[in-house]
Amino acid sequence: MAEQIDTVTSRGRLKPRREPYWHRIRKGCFVGYRLMNKGASGTWLARAWDEGKGRDAFHPLGDFGDLPDHKRFDAATAAAAKWFEHVGRGGSTSAVTLRAACERYIERLRQEKPKVALTPYAVARRARKGLQGHHVVPAAEDAEARFKRYVFTDARLSATPLTKLTPAMFDEWRKRLQAQPTRGGGNRGEARSASTMNRDITCLRAALNLALLDELVTTDFAWRGRLRPIKDADRRRDGYLDKPQRRKFIQMAPPDLAQFLSGLSMLPLRPGALAALTAADFDKRLGVLRIGTDKAGGDRRIKLPKATAEFFEAAIKDKLPAAPIFARADGRAWDKDGWKWPVKAAATAAKLPAGTTAYTLRHSTITDLVHDGLDLLTVAQISGTSVKMIEQHYGHMRGDVAAAALERLAL
After folding, report:
1. Selecting from 3.30.160, 2.20.130, 3.40.395, 1.10.10, what CATH number does the domain 8-88 have?
2. What architecture does CATH give domain 98-224?
3. What is the assigned CATH class of domain 243-407?
4. Model confidence over 161-172: pLDDT tens digits?
5. What pLDDT, on the 0 to 100 scale, is given for residue 159?
6. Deepest in the core among 7, 73, 141, 339, taking most CB within 10 A?
């Protein structure tokens, strides 16, 4: 007679062995109980026939030690039934963890997104951090950094198989994420904004959705309602400095920072992109500036007007090709950690609105371009972003341009 595992009494009679004791649920589907040592609680697992591989597939269920003995068989059967359903829908029989799903997503980005050539300075800076290579995929680098900071640090969640994820797990993860101060960027150490939360949430949701697409899991129930972005987090930007304010900002900054802020006031670039430029990126003969390392990815070139070209020509005078165009007093290129506090001090001295940052200059220059009537596609190309983002944040400023155009139609 086959050994029974459906009652506490019958399990108590079992002899320890490595091979599990099996209970048939239906054809090809079994729930098992493994007892390795007498007096131990034992562990549960499921077994199902994998048609694609032509052999049995096994799935660990755990020991259900948080439940009374008499409830463990029912709990194991219920957990096994979920896995049987997953397999029946064509889901993977391999136990893929959340961490593995995130790593697969990073690798997919590296394969599909464009690579960006690093400047010599950026290569050297990465080498100091133990990172190799002369090219990066910005999207993959960003995703990997976010996962390392906010997902992989949670060992329990990272090690959880996708099929065992629950909505409660993601509720707890969001609470912990919200409680953490930012660990990167110019706002390091400050409370997390809704837009910052959305960027981290979106990245994790994308990794999980890829796993769903690749049939590593058959439902997004665990995260569908828990990883939704916060509404209205990316409202149109309102911080703006007019030209007199920008001049005062530059005037109150030390000379090395003043030159950097001047560059930001002339071009709608991200501060990081401007800081990454080297002397070799500016062709003074043609007056063309090459933007190579940027969040947007890919190379782009900007034809500079005469006054701006003269500013850049003066900035690269007597500099080697690999030298940063905008350097601090000690010769190092600016970075987000280097400009944060000097920028705050200069903004305070200039009596600018609270919250003024280096990025405020990018917003201000884009605002001027849009308000002056430059078409949104050209604005997007120059600033290294999408037309959609320009429309979302700055489209409302086209009202005056549209009104003037309509006025010209009047008979």
Report:
1. 3.30.160
2. Orthogonal Bundle (1.10)
3. mainly alpha
4. 888 889 999 999
5. 92
6. 339
